[in-house]
């Protein structure tokens, strides 16, 4: 079996590539990072190390890579051959790889009727459906009709903390021991997959929302509030009493929404929260607030980890969730010189002011209690910083 995976970064090598290889796939990575691509082709293997006391090491073998920036025709050929395609490139990159995927699928459809599934393993709701939309923009009406039965785009939820790496071995990835990969089987075409460690479900919504609005809401809360308090490592920030209080409060608020919406038992959800806070405290993971807080405009989107649970909380309980509002306020103060979105956000705040930025992001009325609360908390954080 042959799998093509877009994105040989942290989650690509440290999670998806590893699981696919352990499930019997020969994995080929497509990436624009020439150094990583060359090293993968040179060694044909890389190591994954668990961030725990034992530092258990696994070698992922039988791999190859394509530099998709210069060899798009090789990627198209790999799409023709593939038994599975996965991505972990970041939500903003899906539209960029879509034309290449469309071209590959056209070539494939011309010579084969073998079904194929394409799974976006990104932190977003409906990632594969979004990729499908972007791929379909490059097809004719006739192609769209015939591709519907040939190619599946099952949504998925992926969970494993993989920080940025700074190892001497450029291919080595250190990952947390925990992992979860949930795939929506109703959108699958052809024979169901057997991916070791992955769970197939009919309805992904409870899984992706629980993950995004707990793991990623909590993580973002540590990154943004931790930054305001001057912390860098995530594991240090969460140990701070004030940071911890806001993070825990935000998770109680998003938790109230999730429990109500999906009928999880409160006890079960509290255990889920505690487990996640334990994962954030893992002292063997060196993760930075700049990575976890990256792309603040994406994270401040209305379907993402901060505003989505905050708005749902307001709609359900008719009051603004104070802790989520504090986290959003802290996100507005996030600065990172290497992060285009952080620079853009700071520029908009300077030029247009906080209320205009918030209403643009959410379409909420400037007098909405969420906007008012965020503005109040934003001013308080600003005073604290000055
Ligand atoms: N790291 C984690 O803890 C984690 C966990 C779960 C999900 N995710 C999700 O996985 C995705 C990737 O995150 P990551 O942490 O691995 O990021 P990363 O930056 O380590 O990896 C992204 C990779 O994509 C490559 N890339 C960029 N543009 C490309 C293009 N046009 N074509 C092919 N490759 C391209 C980059 O060179 C890089 O190697 C994101 O959506 C993220 O939210 C990350
Ligand atoms: O990848 P992002 O930018 O959406 O979010 C940053 C982190 O919260 C994220 O990568 C987590 O480490 C991951 O989602 C854990 O499963």
Secondary structure topology:
Elements: E1 2-6, H1 10-22, E2 26-31, H2 34-43, E3 46-50, E4 57-60, E5 63-67, H3 72-81, E6 84-87, H4 94-111, E7 116-120, H5 127-136, H6 141-150, E8 151-152, E9 156-159, E10 173-175, E11 180-184, E12 198-201, H7 205-228, H8 234-237, H9 241-262, H10 266-280, H11 289-292, H12 296-299, H13 307-317, H14 322-332, H15 340-352, H16 354-362, H17 369-385
Parallel strand pairs: 1-2, 1-6, 2-5, 3-10, 6-7, 7-8, 11-12
Antiparallel strand pairs: 3-4, 9-11
Helix pairs in contact: 3-4, 4-5, 7-9, 7-10, 7-14, 9-10, 9-13, 9-14, 14-17, 15-16
The structure holds nicotinamide-adenine-dinucleotide and D-Mannitol-1-phosphate (44H).
D-Mannitol-1-phosphate is lined by residues 123, 159-161, 215-216, 219, 292, 294-295.
Number of domains: 2
Identify the overall geometry. globular
Strand/helix succession: EHEHEEEHEHEHHEEEEEHHHHHHHHHHH
| Strand portion | 5-15%
User: Termini distance?
Assistant: 58 Å
What's the count of strands? 12
Largest sheet: 6 strands, parallel
CATH arch. level architecture of the largest domain = 3-Layer(aba) Sandwich
Unreliable sequence segments: none
Strands side by side in the biggest sheet: 5-2-1-6-7-8
What fold name goes in the CATH topology slot of the largest domain? Rossmann fold
CATH class of the largest domain: Alpha Beta
State the CATH superfamily name of the largest domain: NAD(P)-binding Rossmann-like Domain
Overall pLDDT, averaged? 97
Number of helices: 17
The ligands bound in this entry are: nicotinamide-adenine-dinucleotide, D-Mannitol-1-phosphate
GO molecular function: mannitol-1-phosphate 5-dehydrogenase activity
Enzyme class: oxidoreductase
EC number: 1.1.1.17
InterPro entries: 6-PGluconate_DH-like_C_sf (IPR008927), 6PGD_dom2 (IPR013328), Mannitol_1_phos_5_DH (IPR023028), Mannitol_DH (IPR000669), Mannitol_DH_C (IPR013118), Mannitol_DH_CS (IPR023027), Mannitol_DH_N (IPR013131), NAD(P)-bd_dom_sf (IPR036291)
